[in-house]
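Support case: user asked for a sample of complex input and structure output to validate their parser. Sending the pair below.
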Amino acid sequence: MALKNKVLLIILDGQPWRDARRYMGNLEGWVQSGEARVWKMRAVLPSTSASCYASIHTGVTPQQHHVVSNESIFRVKQADIFSQVRAAGGKTGAVTHSFWSEFFNRAPFDMVRDIEYDEEDSPINHGRFHTMTGYGHKNQMTPSDADLFATLTMLTERHKIDYGILHTCTLDSMGHRFGHDCGEMDNACFAIDAMLAHFLPRWIKNGYEVIVTADHGQSDRGHHGGRGEDQQDVALYWFGGGDGPKEGVLLDQLQLAPTILSRMGAPIANTMKAEPFLK
Ligand SMILES: [Zn+2]
């Protein structure tokens, strides 16, 4: 079975809709020039990172997969994007927080064994992870986003992955530290937008369709987990083909997994009940 398309999913942790639309000048420039489309997407509840990561990849709610907090980390039972792409014969890669390796490959995370692996038979074939051990208010412990983007680019060119996810916690950590109405956040968005803009055209030139989105938003005080447009609503930028919904349609985060699989021509698991938003 040959896959129809290759897809990269970029998750900018904790970037709310309002910040994306105001501060991501390169992404917005591509929307303005017609090279990208943008919709609003609403995260699951709780709008907690781990819960959202698991829902983004499985297409089921936290009430179903049971990842209800950042403290409930285990190998998730449901089928997910990695397992479905593998079932279709595709190669997968991840450049993310180590939670992804635990949810979709194996748990607990063994820092030496699992920090980096290339495994032919695993759901995640090419994993490059970081743990953010020691993360806190005074020290973000996040890698440089340019390093993460370069690592993903390496996986696309050296290992020819069909599906790749990249997750960066920079903006979420900045939001928890500084909130959103401040120069620190303006600059953080400006910096990550420019770093992303350096690599994104290369991914497209290499034949990938690309989604740039977030796992959840944040309140102005830098909080998330609960209900509300500020905590739940994020931008979803699409660089690829297919017919999407009209501008202004609110997407559901549970649509992400079946949408990616249908773009790729991989089987949608029967647990993924939401409709793909790209036809
Ligand atoms: Zn998060």
